[in-house]
């Protein structure tokens, strides 16, 4: 992990006083909120950034291809309830690749139903959902529902990255920011998700190295061929889709935007970026509450 940030933050010199105030006020207090690491401990609906997981799973399982055509109305009933695009924009008949670039929920809802709940949840679990990923800091487990409890409507929305539904298992997907960084890094690393760690090396006062981290793989989420195909689609998101603001002169960026909607409240905004797209060195995952 090259950098990790959470806001609101605090002055480390004041940490003892903040811990005392947090204990007095309870977890709902503003000071307790300052001590809460939103990058690793908070669970958010990942919105359309989760479409990276859905697309990977669909291609890996042969459910659809980048060129598979879908109708993309602004709104449609799936499972006897509404699934809608952001702003209810209609895009006509488009390929799955273009639906990813435009972030069409109605296309991904249809794709989710084609895949089925079992495939969708299994694909997410390959990326680390429903698993306790070891890490040097407290890391919340990113969540998916029990597929046996998911309705067709819930499966459609889950494929688009929005957790809906009520049952004993949690609604999903719900993800930490670090989890979505791991999703992006796995795609940029030929389908291999690496074990995240913080300390690269330790040196003493004389400059002698006493510890050097050895990177290790955590799991293989998909084949290298599938990862590269997904990256090609994600390049289009930044070149001519919802992520054009992430373009960098001289560097090709692949990425996925996301918007998690909350009724009566402002949306959460997401972006996961991978660069350089053909030889990934850096992945950035960002969630703005």
Distance between the termini: 22 Å
Strand order of the largest sheet: 9-10-11
Multimeric state: single chain
Helical fraction equals 25-40%
User: How many runs of DSSP E, i.e. beta strands?
Assistant: 11
Overall pLDDT, averaged? Answer: 94
The rough form would be described as globular
Quickly describe the structure.
This protein is an alpha+beta fold. The chain has nine helices and eleven strands. The strands form five sheets. A three-stranded antiparallel sheet has the order 9-10-11. A two-stranded antiparallel ribbon has the order 1-4.
Provide structural commentary.
Helix content is 31%, strand content 19%. It is built from 9 helices and 11 strands. The strands form 5 sheets. Strands 9-10-11 form a 3-stranded antiparallel sheet. The protein has a two-stranded antiparallel sheet with strand order 1-4. The chain has a two-stranded antiparallel ribbon with strand order 2-3. It is globular, with a radius of gyration of 20 Å. 42% of the residues are buried. The model is unreliable at 27-31 (pLDDT under 50).
Write the layout of secondary structure elements.
Elements: H1 15-25, H2 30-34, H3 51-60, E1 69-72, E2 75-77, E3 82-84, E4 92-95, H4 96-102, H5 105-115, H6 117-126, H7 152-159, H8 177-188, E5 192-194, E6 201-203, E7 209-212, E8 217-220, H9 224-240, E9 254-262, E10 265-275, E11 282-288
Antiparallel strand pairs: 1-4, 2-3, 5-8, 6-7, 9-10, 10-11
Helix pairs in contact: 3-6, 3-9, 4-9, 5-7
